[in-house]
Write a structure and sequence with these properties.
Helices cover 14% and strands 19% of the residues. The chain is built from 1 helix and 3 strands. A hairpin with an 8-residue loop joins strand 1 and strand 2. The longest helix is centred in the last third of the chain and has 12 residues. The radius of gyration is 14 Å and the shape is globular. This is Histone-lysine N-methyltransferase, H3 lysine-9 specific SUVH7. InterPro entries: H3K9_HMTase_SUVAR3-9, PUA-like_sf, SRA-YDG_sf, SRA_YDG. Keywords: Nucleus.
Length: 88
């Protein structure tokens, strides 16, 4: 995903861009990768329940802040859904 530009932060669930200083929304989400390891997905094509990036202590910073800002301003975010390996 990194090589083709789909998702740059390959160890994080939310990829985001940082805008120049002085902007109201300094982080804007670009994509979200779901791994199907958590109970945060639906089978519906047009919706996703995403629990946030990080462990159990969710903070509104980094990718989570970018995702919230993107939702608030109506920015579309690419969703990349992981699939379970049937052989695993």
């Amino acid at each position: 995903m990194l090589l083709v530009g789909l998702h740059q932060r390959w160890f994080k669930g939310i990829d985001y861009l940082t805008t120049p200083d002085g902007c109201v929304d300094s982080h804007i989400a670009v994509s979200v990768v779901t791994s199907r390891q958590y109970n945060d997905e639906t089978e519906e094509v047009d919706s996703l329940i995403y629990m946030g990036q990080g462990k159990t202590n969710q903070k509104l910073e980094g990718g989570n802040l970018a995702l919230e800002a993107s939702q608030r301003i109506g920015n579309e975010v690419r969703v990349i859904r992981g699939e379970e390996d049937p052989n695993n």
